[in-house]
Design a protein that fits this description.
By secondary structure, the protein is an all-alpha fold. The chain has one domain. Helices cover 70% and strands 0% of the residues. The protein contains 4 helices and no strands. Helix 1 runs antiparallel to helix 3 and helix 3 packs antiparallel against helix 4. The chain is elongated.
Length: 105
């Protein structure tokens, strides 16, 4: 599983999402879901970051499930279409997560 193309980024996204879900990151300009509204309102900060953290964790889970169901044989797997499946399973849920978090903020 560790040899799947987006395994490490998916795990890192899930790990970095946990503090946001738990609400242990105070308002700052470096880490978290930073918009004008979240930076100006503490309640909005924690609400948006909790939602964003949950969505990013779900996105990582989607990729990990696809990687488990459709594994690549290694970094030199010649099946380009399988690599595109992995790319889509990684990128599409992340983009949807960002879009939903922006709308719900």
């Amino acid at each position: 599983m560790i040899h799947q193309p987006f395994f490490v980024p998916s795990i890192l996204i899930a790990i970095f999402s946990l503090p946001l879900i738990l609400g242990v990151i105070p308002r700052n300009r470096f880490y978290g879901f930073r918009t004008q509204r979240t930076l100006s309102d503490e309640g909005a900060w924690y609400k948006a970051n909790r939602l964003g953290g949950i969505l990013f964790t779900l996105s990582s889970s989607v990729y990990l499930m696809v990687a488990w169901w459709f594994p690549m044989r290694g970094p030199h797997d010649p099946r380009f279409e399988l690599w595109l499946v992995h790319l889509g399973a990684f990128a599409v849920p992340l983009l949807v997560s960002v879009a939903v978090a922006l709308v719900k903020r």
